[in-house]
Amino acid sequence: MANVNEVKICPNKSCGAPLPIPETDKCLSCGSLLRSPENKYFSTPDYLTMQLSDRISFAEEEFNKNPQALTKALNDVWAHYFAWLKVMPEEDMVASLRDVKSILQHNFLSNAKLQTTGVLINLGKEIGKLSENMDAYIKSGGQVTNYEHLLLPEPPKQSDESDI
Length: 164
Description:
mainly alpha; 164 residues
């Protein structure tokens, strides 16, 4: 009686090459990931985009039969989203862009589809343009003037000359 080992084929539809035994982490022919790398510590972070999407979904579920209430709820969600963007901790701003940089650096080694890579490229280009505009603004003497979210004390009232 003979032992027969079934030949495993690369799951990438455009490849289909036979896989070696024991199976490797990547296809030796096309480089496709055959299994997820072991991850002991990390999972999907709670991105602001996910929170916004959840809030919009909740509002749509709750007020789907009342367009006026839905509009009011969505306006409230967006107002609070923009308010958070104005006052979010600087550490969160820096951390989120560091995440973006890491994601872009490792995209070609990930299991992301080509379409997703295209979205990442376009978002990266938009971020680059915004960064260039911010840099040019600061270099030309511009300054941050967004103080409307701060509760500043009222200036002392000037006394009238008639009070003298």
